[in-house]
Write a structure and sequence with these properties.
Mean pLDDT: 88
Shape: elongated
Oligomer: single chain
Distance between the termini: 95 Å
Number of helices: 33
């Protein structure tokens, strides 16, 4: 009867290593030792102790006993078992020790050679690892392709780019006509950003193995990365001609078509897949994405709903169903879908979208509670979340709360430009000109050509009627960087007004208001019109601005200063 421990360690592997149960371990191994005469009772005791420790979850103790047993016997199965347990507990040093013994006892065992090579590479013994891999590749009837893919995975993470590529070149010196090796070299080159080398190696692999679709796909991916989309599509079309019933190829071809903007072509290929395999989940998701991309949300919905029970794709389905509801402003429904996304790569975006829905539903306290939780769960996204919470507080006019929050964020991330800029805008609302100016100058010290910061600083100085020539210089620089921007044109008009040049001020403000009928611009434009004697036109502009936003502070200031215009 197999032990619980035997079942547990069956999951251990280094790049698809053999499971312990494949070797017939646990009680069978102990029985075999009991029937032998050479090893003695000590080995049997160690095996029994190891199994008992494993059943109790004492895996390190089990490993020690297996390593001792392996050192006392010439039994290949014990050495293999010790290797697998060491891998299961992620003890690479002891795994290497056990694998070395396993490989020495079974010098032509493909699994022993493969695992030993990987562990030597992880242990920073590249030369010995290379020797083991060469020995592996010389064996007959092995899965060369997957063995080399495993090798590339370890090279990608364990050695430098230069050393990894050098090891692959040296392997090719021994096997120059091995198509799988050229393919593996191309995989590594792709991972390391050497796209030209990868393209050359896929071509060599295909010259040795003409109809190899896996190599053809890699070639297409490399071509796409290099910007040659047409060649990439041609490569996949060629592969499809060789294997027209390969649904995986057809799916990838559809993705290339969509990426190139050919939504109809991508849909056609996905329809072909579903005609042969109606429940193909990737095709269902692909069609949903095509409809969403084309603005056909209602056509996307049934495809997404069909994925709601899919173990692999349900989280993506929930997320996009939430987006569809949010687009229709069905915020409560959107919130329910977003809250279903509990894991996976979209979990963070789902939570942010849920918080945004709560903000728009005016559930401020719940939104803030969630923001704090998400910030703890995703510390790497703290900046984005602080900015979102600051936006929330500003939206409800809790400027003190927003200022304190952004100040806290700046303590954690000193000098962060977006935080400084955002706090400067909040400081303006709190009439803290010193903080506003200091923050904007800090932004400009790091990013001197930031047109928004230049404009904000220039406008602030102009609005407070201080250092007007300096204010004008900042705004002029901003306008050079973003000519035609209505906010900057508004600032230029305002500083000209403060300088007493009313005709020039009107010219800039008229252009700004024509481009963007914002209440703030309207407030400034109307004031200059009024002071220039064009009072009927000023009243008209102010009335338009009031209809758009009666609670904006800019218009309230105008009403306080010019009450007669609103009688």
């Amino acid at each position: 009867m197999a032990s619980v421990f035997g079942l547990l360690v069956s999951g251990c592997a280094v790049t698809n290593s053999t499971s312990p149960q494949d070797g017939g371990f646990s009680s069978e191994l102990i029985r075999d030792k009991a029937m032998g005469e050479a090893e003695g009772s000590e080995v049997i005791y160690l095996l029994l102790a190891a199994e008992l420790a494993g059943q109790r979850g004492q895996y390190e103790l089990a490993l020690e006993n297996y390593l001792k047993a392996a050192s006392l016997t010439q039994d290949v199965k014990i050495a293999q078992r010790a290797t697998q347990i060491a891998l299961f507990v992620k003890n690479n040093d002891k795994a290497l020790e056990a694998a070395s013994r396993w490989q020495a006892l079974a010098p032509e065992n493909a699994d022993a050679l493969r695992i030993h090579a990987m562990l030597l590479l992880k242990g920073k013994h590249p030369e010995q690892a290379l020797e083991q891999l060469i020995a592996l590749l010389r064996l007959p009837k092995i899965d060369v392709e997957n063995a080399l893919i495993d090798w590339v995975k370890v090279l990608s993470t364990e050695v430098s780019k230069e050393e990894g590529l050098d090891l692959m070149r040296r392997l090719l010196d021994h096997f120059p006509r091995m198509a799988e090796l050229h393919f593996a070299y191309a995989l590594l080159a792709t991972d390391k950003g050497e796209q030209r080398l990868a393209l050359d190696e896929t071509a060599k692999a295909l010259s040795l193995h003409h109809d190899w679709n896996r190599a053809r796909l890699l070639q297409a991916q490399v071509m796409s990365r290099m910007g040659d989309s047409q060649a990439a599509r041609d490569a996949i079309q060629k592969a499809l001609k060789n294997d027209p019933n390969n649904l995986r190829l057809r799916l990838i071809y559809s993705q290339f078509l969509v990426k190139a903007g050919n939504l109809a072509g991508g849909k056609r290929e996905l329809d072909r897949i579903l005609a042969k395999e109606p429940n193909n989940e990737e095709a269902l998701l692909g069609l949903a994405m095509i409809h969403i991309e084309g603005g056909q949300d209602e056509k996307a919905r049934p495809f997404l709903l069909r994925l709601n029970d899919s173990p692999r794709w349900k989280m993506q389905s929930f997320f996009y169903l939430g987006l569809l509801e949010a687009r229709k402003n069905h915020l409560q429904n959107a919130l329910q879908w977003f809250d279903k996304v509990s894991e996976g790569p979209m979990a963070f975006d789902a939570q942010v979208n849920a918080i945004t829905a709560l903000i728009n539903l005016k559930q401020v306290q719940e939104a803030r509670r969630r923001l704090i939780e998400v910030r703890k769960a995703f510390p790497q996204e703290a900046l984005r979340l602080y900015l979102l919470e600051g936006e929330l507080l500003t939206k409800i006019k809790d400027y003190i709360g927003a200022f304190d929050l952004l100040s806290q964020a700046l303590e954690e991330m000193p000098g962060q430009i977006e935080l400084l800029y955002t706090r400067a805008l909040v400081a303006e609302q709190l009439d803290k000109p010193d903080v506003l100016e200091a923050d904007l100058r800090a932004v400009l010290a790091k990013s001197p050509d930031d047109p928004n910061a230049l404009n904000a600083l220039g406008f602030t100085l102009a609005d407070h009627a201080t250092r007007l020539e300096e204010a004008k210089r900042y705004i002029e620089r901003a306008l050079d960087l973003k000519p035609g921007d209505p906010a900057i044109l508004d600032s230029m008009g305002w500083v000209q007004y403060r300088l007493g040049d009313y005709p020039s001020a009107l010219e800039y403000l008229r252009r700004a208001y024509h481009l963007f009928k914002d209440p703030e611009i309207g407030a400034h434009f109307g004031e200059v019109l009024w002071e220039s004697g064009k009072r009927q036109e000023a009243k008209k502009i102010w009335q338009e601005s009031l209809r758009k936003s009666s609670d904006r502070g800019d218009m309230k200031k105008v009403q306080d200063r010019y009450p007669q215009a609103f009688e």
